[in-house]
Design goal:
356 residues, six-stranded mixed beta sheet, 20% helix, disordered N terminus
Length: 356
């Protein structure tokens, strides 16, 4: 297996990702874009809502090709701490099947988003005969930096994210569902990463996307990094609540895994947050959702990977989640919320100076 590719070139017009700074995690190579969309058949779209100073919110759509009530994909879910609203969880846990795209948004907008997703599915060929739909919508609380009670995400925003979803590079940081998110004392948001993994004699791809919004103390390369350590202003006091949680982690792979194995993968994705210093607090909803792109019920395709052959995939998801969280912090932009609270991204130059 080839070694991890070298750092991506740094462009002056875009914030640096972890790998561009030499902070890539692990030894497995990434996909072309180091993103969830490296998994064949996966598209990602964002709708970003910014109306300063009151609204910094949005929605992110993860769209597997052809998924629908009559063409589900194998899936598993794990709640590290269930203080959250991952809609559709119980049916995934019971049946091991994903039958809609996965949408991420703000806490109080989750229910409107789910309704819009159902309408979108029913209008498409994949939902033409559906009499039941299990919409899957995750959320994090952006109440520190956005007027969460205004529930700004509407049906047209959901449809725009779904319809504009594309393969290729994925926008990160303060975009879509990550617009108002904070993590580990910094401005955070959406982050993504991927790995190419040798499994059962062939190469497969695993990708993750995180909506980072959790508490704790950041750790980079094993070193604790507080905001003050990298020159980021901190507030003496502020409302606890929103900054204590949460994190939504979505993992996709074209490896031939069944629902039970995907649940095991989802579990490891939540464990990975410990590497970056997650506090796993009382108010933190820490969820992992993993799905495969091999449809259920298809005739003989690749043989399901034996459990003993899963270790490289487990390692890949740990590495990819760690790097995705770092990407969410490094690519974010500073945001000031309606009550004057400001969160700043992780500054790359100061971080590299600290790490020496």
């Amino acid at each position: 297996m080839p070694t991890s590719p070298g750092p991506e070139p740094i462009t002056p017009t875009a914030p640096s990702r972890a790998r561009q700074l030499g902070l890539g995690v692990g030894h497995l190579p990434t996909g072309t874009h180091n993103a969830l969309t490296d998994v064949p058949g996966i598209r990602v779209g964002h709708t970003t809502l910014i109306r300063p100073p009151r609204v910094h919110s949005g929605v992110t759509a993860i769209v597997p090709e052809g998924v629908g009530p009559d063409s589900p994909l194998p899936a598993g879910v794990f709640a590290g701490n269930g203080y959250g609203k991952l809609l559709g969880t119980t049916q995934i846990a019971e049946l091991g099947a994903l039958e809609t795209p996965v949408l991420l948004t703000s806490t109080l907008s989750a229910f409107r988003v789910a309704d819009a997703l159902v309408g979108w599915i029913l209008e498409r060929p994949e939902g033409a005969a559906a009499r039941s739909v299990n919409p899957v919508v995750g959320e994090c609380n952006d109440g520190l930096l956005s007027d969460i009670r205004s529930r700004p995400v509407r049906e047209e925003h959901v449809r725009a994210a779904l319809d504009s979803a594309s393969a290729g590079p994925v926008a990160e940081g303060s975009v879509g569902a990550g617009t108002g998110m904070t993590a580990l004392g910094f401005k955070a948001g959406i982050g993504t990463s991927s790995r190419r993994v040798p499994v059962a004699g062939r190469e497969v791809t695993l990708g993750v996307l995180v909506q980072a919004n959790f508490g704790g103390t950041l750790r980079v390369s094993g070193r604790a990094v507080a905001p003050v350590d990298v020159g980021v202003p901190t507030e003496d006091s502020g409302p606890p609540g929103p900054e204590t949680g949460s994190c939504m982690i979505v993992t996709a792979t074209d490896a031939p895994l069944d629902a039970r194995q995907l649940t095991r993968l989802a579990r490891r994705s939540v464990y990975a947050l410990a590497r970056v210093g997650a506090g796993y607090g009382h108010g933190s909803g820490d969820y992992g959702l993993a799905f495969g792109t091999r449809p259920l019920g298809t005739p003989a395709g690749p043989t399901v990977v034996p459990d003993a052959g899963l270790d490289l995939l487990f390692g890949a998801v740990l590495d990819a989640v760690e790097e995705a969280v770092l990407n969410s912090l490094l690519t974010a932009t500073a945001v000031t919320g309606p009550c004057g609270h400001t969160r700043y991204p992780l500054p790359s130059a100061s971080l590299l100076a600290l790490l020496g």
